[in-house]
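We treat protein structure as text, and this decision shapes the records that our systems exchange. Such a record has a labelled line for the sequence and another for the backbone structure tokens. The record that follows is passed on verbatim for readers who wish to inspect the format:
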Amino acid sequence: MKTRFALFDNEIAARFAKRFANAGTVIHRSPLPRSTQELVSLRASQINGCGWCVDMHTKEATAAGETALRLNLVAAWRESTVFTEAEQAALALAEEGTRLADAHQGVSDETWALVREHYDDDQVAALVALVALINAANRLAVIVHQRGGSYETGAFAAALD
């Protein structure tokens, strides 16, 4: 599969990407733990089949100190013992918020209650925004067939400079 369109080489797409990344900066600087941010982004990207985003978030998580064991188990987090209850709540929200079409009610009341049990208002705001943002990023990359494997840690942040 060949990349259809070079998003970062087009002026309009590049201006959009910069603003999009700035929205991500708000989340990145929030009190939501960085490890949770990367795990959520990775899980949504796995579900959406976004190789570029899986590549990016795996590498960024590793650079932030995440272990290979936990990264390898994200897709099977329900059957794993390496995630905290708070991380499990965030991963459940990521899955349900990503698979909106699969459930007529979207995010379940049970999952929402778990999220509220583990995260304060600022963290919830960041988590909800993150799920929305990563799903949008996945769609951008999947539509243009942006493939994984070439991402270099810190490259997206560098684009903000």
About this structure: The CA atoms of residues 106 and 144 lie 27 Å apart. The mean pLDDT is 92. The domain at 10-74+83-158 is CATH 1.20.1290.10 (AhpD-like).
